[in-house]
Design a protein that fits this description.
heterodimer, A: mainly alpha, 66% helix, 0% strand, flat, B: alpha/beta, Rossmann fold, 3 domains, 18 helices, 60% helix, elongated
Chain lengths: 107, 467
């Protein structure tokens, strides 16, 4: 276990909140849905904690909870990143000149 | 834990921040998402190789099952069902964090490790509380969006008192568990109360307020991860969790501003429960003259002679899956030399950015999608504003009628265009339960029907008329 004192963790928390606000305020409304699904995938970081709890080597209730947590967090991570990628790939700039008539095939 | 793993977590955190920063531009956004995914991979691999994991079979099984389900969900989901998907993922993330915190506590109880004092018990309590609320809150939101339960606000007698009582119980259990963290009975009570609280908090919130709820649950899923980070003393969870928490809070505020309502009002002031009553009963007096129904052929005549058209999509477009049909109409008009833009209200649809995703799916280039503040002054010079399945976000009462429950909400000024087409299934009121005087304006043409069918008929009529 990391021996970071709670104050250090609090410092990290506060600074990260500020970074988060700065970075995310610049995301345009156009991309708010991918922002949500993408940031949601990041919140699946708890999979890291789940790995430690489930893989402790004990076969007890805690390990069962850890296992369920791994499954849920991994759904969150993989599902979140993949669906975000799917959405972002759809956002295109103005079609190239002359491509107007053949739009149907891209859908 | 080795220095190496801490450095790996730092790398992951940097990749998350860079990834989010790249989301500020549609051209770099795909790369940004990939950067975040690489960050996650770094964090997971570092944890796996750090000699902390003893039992790889359990871990591998969990990862494979989760990845399989996640991949299937992400590839199969329809774009119109994206709000449900995001709601569900929020719930999974939040509950995973709570489970980890709970697992830590149970381990500590078994080994007799003392947790009293310090920040850990408090963090466990927060993680379980936020994670529990996120899980059931998201499931209720999912059920509403999937229309498994009614989308309208659910109210019942003594709702406020029941919630207040539950709040007191939660605080009691939370304080008790913080003082005596190894008491597993209190833990179970807190888990139960959190789950119940999630249901009761989201149940009274109606469909059109879903953008706020989903943003807030998004934030909670991050905050739960953050709290679990304090439990495990894990910097990766603290950093990532707070980034997501901040992101969700910003979106929540943007959504609330776009409805001119406070967060408290959205969460606890279910429309129609309080101030809504007066205006709903006064609704009969709002009728201003008669509504005339037009056919798509009538509309095509007006549309064909227009120079400038603005399309205003709303939730009705999503319900009717009309995004492809509307893009075809837009392409046709553009090929006739007509300027076509889409006006996007921030709370149109059921989640932030809902309309943008649907129109992107239909291959509408994103330059054609214009935000409210930018497009509003342009309605004056617009020949046709075509309202497709939107209602409250174009209700002029929000500008003029102080007694209206939506007074002060920023709206799209479609009524200032020369002609307004409103495509709607019937004369039902919008989510706020109030009649829309726009429908009775002289320059408004109502076209009744399914959004998708009307779009197709309109395109055919324009083609016939111009050829």
């Amino acid at each position: 276990m990391l021996e970071v004192p709670a104050v250090a963790a609090l410092t990290i928390l506060v600074l990260s909140l500020f970074v988060g606000v700065e970075v995310i305020s610049k995301v345009p409304p156009l991309l708010h849905t991918p922002l949500m699904s993408g940031s949601n995938a990041i919140s699946g970081i708890s999979v890291v904690g789940a790995l430690l709890v489930a893989g402790s080597g004990n076969r007890d209730l805690a390990a069962v909870l850890g296992f369920v947590a791994i499954v849920l967090a991994t759904i969150n991570v993989i599902g979140g990143f993949l669906v975000t990628n799917r959405m972002l790939a759809m956002f295109k700039q103005t079609r190239r000149p002359g491509a107007d008539s053949g739009r149907g095939e891209g859908a | 834990m080795s220095t190496l793993i801490q450095i790996a977590y730092l790398v992951a955190a940097v990749l998350f921040i860079l990834g989010l920063r790249n989301l500020s531009n549609p051209r770099t956004a795909v790369r940004g998402n990939a950067l975040s995914a690489v960050g996650m991979l770094v964090a997971i691999v570092a944890t796996l190789v750090a000699n902390e994991v003893m039992d790889y079979t359990v871990v591998a099984a969990g990862l494979v099952v989760g990845a399989g389900i996640g991949a299937v969900m992400a590839t199969r989901i329809q774009m119109t069902a994206m709000p449900q998907m995001v709601a569900l993922l929020n719930g999974f993330g939040g509950s995973a964090s709570a489970l980890v915190a709970g697992g830590e506590l149970i381990s500590a109880a078994q080994t007799g490790e003392s947790l009293a004092g310090g920040i850990v018990p408090f963090a466990v309590v927060l993680s379980i509380l936020i994670g529990g609320i996120t899980l059931t809150g998201s499931l209720v939101a999912f059920a509403k969006l999937q229309e498994l339960v009614g989308g309208s606000a659910v109210t019942y007698p003594l709702q406020k008192s029941a919630n207040a009582l539950l709040g007191v119980l939660v605080i009691g259990a939370a304080v008790s568990l913080t003082v005596d963290p190894l008491n597993l009975a209190t833990l179970s009570v807190l888990v139960g109360l959190s789950l119940l609280l999630g249901v009761l908090l989201v149940l009274p919130i109606g469909g059109a307020d879903m953008p706020v709820v989903i943003s807030l649950l998004n934030s909670y899923s991050g905050l739960a991860a953050c709290a679990t980070g304090f439990v495990l003393d894990n910097s990766a969870l603290v950093v990532s969790g707070s980034l997501v928490g901040a992101s969700g809070l910003i979106l929540t505020r943007i959504m609330c501003d776009a409805m001119n309502r406070s967060l408290g009002n959205v969460l606890f002031g279910a429309f129609g429960a309080e101030e809504g009553v007066a205006s709903v009963s006064a609704e009969g007096g709002v009728e201003q003259g008669s509504v005339t129904a037009y056919t798509p052929i009538d509309a095509a005549v007006v549309l064909s002679s227009a120079l400038r058209v603005i399309i205003v999509p709303g939730y009705g477009m999503a319900v009717a899956q009309a995004q492809h049909a509307v893009r075809e109409l837009s392409d046709l008009l553009i090929s006739e030399g007509i300027q076509v833009q889409f006006a996007i209200h921030p709370v149109a649809g059921r989640m932030p950015g809902h309309m943008n995703v649907l129109l992107a799916e239909a291959d509408v280039p994103y330059e054609q999608l214009v935000e409210m503040d930018e497009i509003n002054p342009q309605f004056l010079e617009t020949d046709v504003a075509l309202v497709l399945g939107a209602n409250d976000v174009v209700n002029p009462q929000a500008r003029s009628d102080v007694s209206s429950p939506i007074y002060g909400m920023p709206i799209l000024d479609v009524d200032r265009a020369k002609h307004v087409f409103v495509i709607k299934r019937g004369m039902s009121t919008g989510f706020a339960g109030i009649q829309n005087p726009l429908f009775f304006h002289d320059n408004t043409m109502m076209i009744f029907g399914d959004a998708k069918k009307v779009m197709i008929q309109l395109a055919e009529a324009v083609r016939d008329y111009t050829s």
